[in-house]
Amino acid sequence: MLTFDRVELRQGDFRLKAHLSVAAGSLSALIGPSGSGKSTLLAAIAGFIAPAQGRILWAGKDMTGKAPGQRSVAMLFQDNNLFPHLSAAQNVGLGLRPDLKLTQDDRERVSDALGQVGLAGLENRKPSALSGGQQSRVAIARVLVSQSDIVLLDEPFAALGPALKDEMLDLVADKLSAKGRTVIMVTHDPADARRIASQTIVVSDGIVHPPVETGPLLDNPPEALAAYLGGKKDKKGPLN
Ligand SMILES: Nc1ncnc2c1ncn2[C@@H]1O[C@H](COP(=O)(O)OP(=O)(O)OP(=O)(O)O)[C@@H](O)[C@H]1O
Fold first, then answer.
1. Which atom of ligand 1 approaches the CA of 41 most closely?
2. Residues 126-135: contacts with CB within 8 Å, 24+ apart?
3. 114 lies in some domain
4. What is the predicted pLDDT for the residue at 23?
5. What is the CATH number of the domain that holds 11?
């Protein structure tokens, strides 16, 4: 369980309150208007921002004071954070060892992860020789080998076309969430939430709301969310 115990986050004049729990092994969408604080919340979970008040706990243990590197958290951003001068395998290897001193066993894990995301045989390619979708797969493989308990996705697939984006979302669901990771995914697209997130956390008006079931929430959104979703196409169901 990831618990926010009367947390208050501050960025300049901005204030965000969070008092909720996210079940271990769940996949949650994080939605809310631009500037509502979604990235701020992820930064606090990862340890880049310290709460002004309250505690963040994982599995009952307070991680509020831990440095980012000491947390079992992996992040995936829109630009995938791949290093252009490193091969696909080396980029994945960074998820295991930041100094890239990989043992034979590590190398096998890297190969296995690349195989799992459909990139077997492309280990030695640099990112520039990979398509956008393949680059996203490398980034997912890096999260796979990291074995972190918590995975934070900040709109990593927004730049991909719809079919490719759906493929990546399904990979996240199959390879990360189904394997027990606790996944929180920022998205501006309600269809993404419907596709893979059984629960959704709404951030609005300075508050992070507790997770609720995605389908009923989007079918019948509260006023603040309805205003935000107003301009967005909400395709119902995963297949249409
Ligand atoms: N370093 C900072 N100093 C001051 N204010 C900041 C800083 N970083 C973010 N903010 C403010 O905090 C608020 C929340 O920003 P945040 O990036 O978390 O929103 P968001 O929901 O992720 O937005 P978007 O959907 O546009 O990415 C915004 O009002 C933003 O201007």
1. 18
2. 126/84, 126/85, 126/86, 126/87, 126/88, 127/80, 127/82, 127/83, 127/84, 127/86, 127/88, 127/91, 128/84, 130/88, 132/159, 132/160, 132/164, 133/160, 133/164, 133/167, 133/168, 134/88, 135/80, 135/82
3. no
4. 97
5. 3.40.50.300
Classify residue 25: in a domain, yes or no: yes
Assigned domain for 100 exists: no
Instruction: State the amino acid at position 59 in one-letter form.
Output: A
Ligand 1 mean position, distance from CA 38 (Å)? 8
187 lines ligand 1 (CB under 6 A): no
Structural domains in the chain (count): 1
CA 184 – ligand 1 centroid, Å: 18
Provide the whole-model pTM: 0.90
CA-closest residue to ligand 1 atom 8: 11
Decide if pLDDT at 238 tops 70: no
Its domain, for residue 56, covers: 1-72+150-161+188-228
Mean pLDDT of the chain: 91
Ligand 1 in reach of 202 Cβ (< 6 A): no
Using 50, 70 and 90 to split pLDDT, how confident is the model at 234? low
The residue whose C-alpha atom lies closest to atom 25 belonging to ligand 1 is: 34
**199-204 vs 212-213, strand pairing mode:** antiparallel
121 with 165: CB under 8 angstroms? Answer: no
